[in-house]
Amino acid sequence: GGPGTAPNVPPTVSLTTPVGGATFTAPATMAIAATATDSDGTVAKVEFYAGQTRVGTDTTSPYAVNWTGVGAGTYVLKLAVAGFLLALFETATAKMRVFRVPEFLGVALML
Predict the structure, then answer these.
(1) What is the secondary structure of 19-66 as a DSSP string?
(2) Which has more pLDDT, 65 or 2?
(3) Whole-model pTM?
(4) 36: which strand partners?
(5) Quick check: bond before 10 cis, omega within 30?
(6) Buried b / exposed e along 4-34 (16+ C-beta atoms within 10 A)
(7) CB-CB contact of 65 with 32 (8 Å)
(8) Torsions phi, psi of 54, nearest 5?
(9) Tell me: the pLDDT tens digits for 86-107?
(10) What are the tens digits of pLDDT across the range 48-81?
(11) Using the 8-state DSSP alphabet, how is residue 7 labeled?
(12) Which helix (H) or strand (E) holds 70?
């Protein structure tokens, strides 16, 4: 900016749930929640990603999405927040693992 113009401070965002290292059973529904603030403006939206794939967006606090039908695998969750002047900030990541239920668990054993 010019003289007398304060620089834009990026918004801050953090993942509140699930915690890193959490495990789920496929097909999973993962409730993902975040807190976000913008000290010199307002938060326009929070986007939720699994790797490079956007799994949801929320424009109102509390920021949360339900990611449904999650298949077996390991996922890295990321957040992006757009705030005042559309400053974009990405958080650190959290790794989640989704497991398949072994088929034998659904079979009654006869002795």
Answers:
(1) PTT-EEESSEEEEEEEEEE-TTS---EEEEEETTEEEEEE-SSSEEEE
(2) 65
(3) 0.75
(4) 13
(5) no
(6) eeeeeebbebebeebeeeeebeeebebebbb
(7) yes
(8) -75, 125
(9) 555 555 566 777 777 654 344 4
(10) 988 889 999 999 999 999 999 999 888 888 888 8
(11) P
(12) strand 63-70
- Tally of residues, the chain: 111
Q: What is the CA radius of gyration of the chain?
A: 19
Residue type (1 letter), 88: L
Q: Which residues contact 87 (CB under 8 A, 6 or more apart)?
A: 8, 9, 10, 11, 38
Residue pair 78/90 in contact (Cβ under 8 Å)? The answer is: yes
Structure tokens at 70: 């999650």
Encoded amino acid at 52, one letter: Q
